[in-house]
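sorry for the late reply, my laptop died twice this morning and i had to redo everyting from scratch. anyway the thing you sent over, i finally got around to it. pasting the sequence first so we're on the same page, its 102 residues, then the predicted structure underneath. double check i copied it right bc i was rushing
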Amino acid sequence: MIAGAWCPRCAHGFVGERERCPVCAGNVEPRTLNPEGILETYTTVHAPPHGFEAGFTVGVILLAGGVRAAAHWTGQGVLAMGVRVSVRREGDLLRFELVPAA
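ok and here's the structure:
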């Protein structure tokens, strides 16, 4: 499970713990999010910011409840939009990998 937050004022959900909603500045409620979701899009970064090596892949994952998370790809296999993935926290970063087919 992943720590998240929900804003009852504007009905937005977020990954990570926070006290205020970044959309409306309302108070948020802590939520636990299911780590499985759908890969909406991804890209490989060839001109990274300081502290990162070129060639890492980042994806946007749609989690349950409409919450989106940006995460670094750590798995093996071929990525495609629409595949099922699982997200996990590793230090300050979110990482994702493919969910094996049932």
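The mean pLDDT is 92.
thats about all i looked at so far, will dig more tmrw
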